[in-house]
Amino acid sequence: MVALERSELVDALRLAPGCSTALHDAAAGACFSWERAAAEHATQENLQRLHELQNKLYADRRYAVLIVLQAFDGGGKDSTIRRVFGAFNPQGCNVVAFKPPSLEEQAHDFLWRVHRHAPPKGSVAVFNRSHYEDVLVPVVERSIEPQVVRQRHAAINDFERMLIDNGTRVVKIFLHISRAEQKRRFEERRTHPEKRWKLDVADLAKRRQWGAYHKAYSAAFAACGTATAPWYVVPADRRWFRDLAVSQIVRVEFEGLRLRWPALDRRLAGAALR
Description:
Radius of gyration: 20 Å
Oligomer: single chain
């Protein structure tokens, strides 16, 4: 089979508005007929292009980009941030990792802690977990009622629409790994001293709730996937394909902004340089 063109790949990974996905384990290893060497070469091209586009975004100052990364534990969020978003200049990119809410954060509405980290125009923000945790964890733990979940879905849609209306491109990516691959990565963490700190007892408890999390994610995809802020589901068992897919998605989203270089200030056009 011939590998999908990069633009076709993005279309294949984008969920249609209001649609969900069953998150089958077999789909987590898909690579759409890409070979590793070709994928790695294309990824490097994308990273160079992302570096250029971020510079243009910073100079343009009309738009911002918010990248939301969600995944199961061991799904590869940290390595994706390092290997893909490492292409960005740190001066114009802020990475925010959302942990369980503090007592102060719990005293506010669930979006309070998220909104203050939204990127200003000219910059990029990458959320390692996000506001979607509040329609995942409490749903699986059954600590909120279905009506509250529906209200939160609606609030998320309003929040993202407000960001978009104010010039922020919202890019939402789910890194899809299989249960077998998560087990392999957990075993790797348990046996390698430099990785043990990444494994927590809570990770094992969440693994036993695999099906419940699938169901909560599917509901979030269906309720919060919109035409202007769709969800992308990236097969992530193969890191090299994951990097290609994520870098291509973000590249396409950046290029859709039609960024431009600012014109030279008229006062500088004829100024004598001494």
